[in-house]
Amino acid sequence: MALWAYFVMPGGSVRTALILTPVMPGVLIFAVCYWLYLSCDEYIRLRTLQAATLTACAVALLCLVYFLLELAGLPKLSMMWVHVVGWSLFNAQMLRLVLQAR
């Protein structure tokens, strides 16, 4: 809807509202996560960054491998699966961190 409003609707307050509606919650979520990150101690910060780094590397490697498999004839993979795998890996690491910190 935001892309449609940007390209089709004439400029004005309705167009601005339609564009900002999906963007502002994402900005708010990012801000809250950053504030929570800053309020944690150094150990939790380090482990969070390690979890994010490991997840990013794993997702990049899986995407590269599946890209090569697509060239070999496998069907195209929906990006939703990449999203699910990435978040699941990150959440599993963070759950382990939370349980260890107790």
Write structural notes for this entry.
It is a single chain. The protein is mainly α and 102 residues long. The chain is 85% helix and 0% strand. The chain contains 4 helices and no strands. The chain starts with a helix and ends with a helix.
Summarize the structure.
With 102 residues, this protein is mainly α. 85% of the residues lie in helices and 0% in strands.
Task: Tag the structure with descriptive keywords.
102 residues, mainly alpha, flat
Structural class: mainly alpha
Unreliable segments of 5+ consecutive residues: none
| Rg value | 19 Å
Shape: flat
Strand count, sense and barrel status of the largest sheet are: none
Topology readout:
Layout: H1 2-8, H2 13-39, H3 42-71, H4 79-101
Helix pairs in contact: 1-2, 3-4
